[in-house]
Amino acid sequence: MGDPGSDLVISALETVWGSTAGACAGLGAADWDLPTECPGWSVRDQLSHVIGIERTLMGEPAPLTSGPVPAHVRNPIGEMNEAWVGARRSLPGPDVLAEFESVTAQRIEALRAMTHAEFDVVGWSPAGQVPYREFMVLRVFDSWVHEQDVRRALGRPGGRGGVGEAMSLDRVAGAMGYVIGRKVSPPDGTTVVFEVTGPLPRTVAVEMREGRGEEPADLPDIPSARITLDAESFWRLGCGRIAAEPTLNAGSVALVGDAALGRRVLGAMDFLI
Length: 273
Hints:
Layout (H helix, E strand, L loop, with lengths): L5 H18 L19 H15 L18 H11 L6 H21 L2 H5 L1 E2 L6 E2 H23 L8 H22 L6 E7 L4 E8 L2 E3 L10 E6 H8 L5 H6 L3 E5 L1 H9 L6
Parallel strand pairs: 3-6
Antiparallel strand pairs: 1-2, 3-4, 4-5, 6-7
């Protein structure tokens, strides 16, 4: 997709957040407590997480917490996320939805008031020091994945095929060099090609060079391993929503070439913090 302009990023956030709110319209009381594929979080918690991140970006401190850290929390960022989520677990779902709609509307208004130069300013993000525009692309990715968590838990499919999914697939694709180079670490010269099928198809290739997973200059005709899978399996594996073996057993993935290498790659695809 290349470097998206600020208008496209704002539009993507508005679309994804609006779609998320729509997925939660008219839920029953028990629906808010349904577990999702995001470890430890319910439907309510997904909205609370987005609220917390956006309130943090609005300059608000995270709530104070006490007691043991849940097992699904793995780092300080996770602890901050959990603080926002935990503070809303006792609230009725419709109240959390109303806050979600209010906060995301405020954020869209604030983003539209920013200049292009402000979007170019480099600063902190979960992915390191990046321009603010790129940070907001990460917010599209995070928000879209959590929307899909909500929709899968509720059995309300939607939000697919648009710019939110395209940006999210780009994000997962961009992480495969890290996955193969750092987590799998096969010998130099190893090549892995992902063939992602569906309405937003893409080919993602990684070559090991000097101990790093890099994009090759040319697609290899016969890679060490070729992994063909649909877009949903691609991002769900990359985001740790599903495990490799059940996905293989379900027939959602086809491996050609070094099957052992392919299985190692599938098992290492989760790159989220």
